[in-house]
Amino acid sequence: MERHKVQHNINTDETVIKINGLYKSFGELDVLKGVDLTVHRGENIAVLGKSGSGKSVLIKTLVGLLKPDKGEIMVLGKQVNKLHRKELDELRLRIGFSFQNSALYDSMNVYQNLAFPLTMNVKNLSKKEVNNAVEEALDAVGLKDKIKELPADLSGGQRKRIGIARTLILNPEIMLYDEPTAGLDPITSTEINDLIVEVQQRYKTSSVIITHDLTCAKNTCDRIAMLVEGEFLKVGKFEEVLNLDNKQVKEFFNYNFI
Ligand code: ADP
Ligand code: MG
After folding, report:
1. What digits encode the pLDDT tens for the residues 103-140?
2. Cα 157 to Cα 2, 181, 183, 185, 248, distances in angstroms
3. Measured from the CB, is residue 64 less than 6 Å from ligand 1?
4. Would you give the DSSP letter of residue 94?
5. Largest Cα–Cα distance in the chain?
6. DSSP string for 16-32
7. What does DSSP assign to residue 43?
8. Is pLDDT of 1 > 60?
9. Angle, nearest 10°, between helix axes 156-168 and 127-140?
10. What is the value of ipTM here, to two decimals?
11. Is 56 in the pocket of ligand 1 (CB under 6 A)?
12. Nearest 5°: phi and psi at 84?
């Protein structure tokens, strides 16, 4: 099923993420062992790899939630690990991070869930400005009619959309999605994958998408990167990575195509 092909002009001169020789261990466990990655403005990159391979660890280092043991991470022109607290907070406002299990606030309705990060981070907004921003973000995810609902009254796919809307409210330049379709049925997953493309086109974001969904990797993403034993063997087009002569890569694709 090929519903969307990404169409955009990539300014290959402009790098929004550059990771060089990234290492990260937890005690005896060496998770990342020399990861390199360059993401250009407007690109969608899929990160694949089996569970526990370090995908979440990798994107957490991008926003300074985890400190690498070694290596350089440049995001939007800033060296993430050299930033002071305030500078890091400012950088994070330019990055939308859709966490693996990003929960909405159950006691708040959709409007409040979206308005909260906005009013926390941007001072002196008028009520009208907040309302407009909430409506715009809800429009982007196709759920304007759910503005007064509580999270408990939404489906899994709708909650995911509201979670994405909540990150869009700050108009991010980069989106990081950690398994956005985990736990969703195939149809809802396809809808979320389509939404990622729509968001990318509407907000002109660059995205790193951790996913096990090969349709997403193939159709939503410009290039894919597979974490194998703490490294990306190659960051390239879907077919280039699919055809790599590597036992673990072959196993991964064989298993996931069944
Ligand atoms: P995945 O590819 O499934 O997202 P993760 O990046 O979450 O994998 O984790 C990679 C490995 O690092 C796992 O073995 C995990 O248990 C370990 N790990 C992740 N975060 C921590 C942490 N904060 N402390 C100790 N170990 C961690
Ligand atoms: Mg993970």
Report:
1. 899 999 999 999 999 999 888 899 999 999 999 999 99
2. 20, 8, 9, 9, 32
3. no
4. T
5. 57
6. EEEEEEEEEEETTEEEE
7. -
8. no
9. 130
10. 0.99
11. yes
12. -75, 160
